[in-house]
Amino acid sequence: MPSKRKRTNPSEQKSQIIRGILPFVFSLVLTVGLSGGLCAIAANAMCTTDLAPALLIPLTTVLICIALLIASLFLSAIFKGGILAGTLLASVLILLLSLLSFLLYQSSFTSLWATKTLAFLASGALGGYLGSVLRERRRKIRR
Questions:
Q1: How far apart are CA 83 and CA 61, in angstroms?
Q2: What is the residue extent of each domain of the chain?
Q3: How far apart are the first and last CA of the chain?
Q4: Which positions ≥6 away from 51 have C-beta within 8 Å?
Q5: Which of 40, 126, 51, 42 lies closest to 85 in space, CA to CA?
Q6: Cα(60)–Cα(54) distance, integer angstroms
Q7: pLDDT for 2
Q8: How far apart are CA 23 and CA 139, in angstroms?
Q9: Shortest CA distance to 35 belongs to which of 123, 142, 128, 136?
């Protein structure tokens, strides 16, 4: 006996795609905003104290990883997503930052770029995992 699947019309499919894209775009904007805010705080701290300029690259990498972790946790906890959603968010951020860096500095990819890429992907995946765990826990508590 053939299974009866409910057919979705094209307008419902379009609205499902839009509902999936909007949280992703919001999380990407949240990542950029948090990164900018955290880097501004770090810049203020570097100006008021005597931190070494050599700490600038690791410090900004850590701050962007924190912002990415928070945004991917938000994406996975509030909306449906998981490790894949967090990793996809990190991948889009890496692509945007690499494109911006290439357009501004015309530099080639180095081992530092690979290290930052791995750190961003790990932060996104960890945030996605933690967000899905929080969503599951919240669902179990409601029952």
A1: 20
A2: 19-142
A3: 35
A4: 45
A5: 126
A6: 11
A7: 57
A8: 20
A9: 123
CA distance 54 to 12: 52
62-91 b/e (C-beta count within 10 Å ≥ 16 → b): ebbbebbbbbbbbbbbebebbbebbbbbbe
pLDDT for 11-67, tens place per residue? 666 676 677 777 888 888 888 899 889 889 888 888 888 888 788 888 888 999 999
| Helix ranges (DSSP H) in 49-110 | 56-78, 83-105
Q: What is the pLDDT of residues 89-100, one digit of tens each?
A: 899 999 998 888
Rounded CA separation 43/96 (Å):
22
Neighbours of 96 (CB within 10 A): 13
Q: Which residue has the tokens 């938000």?
A: 74
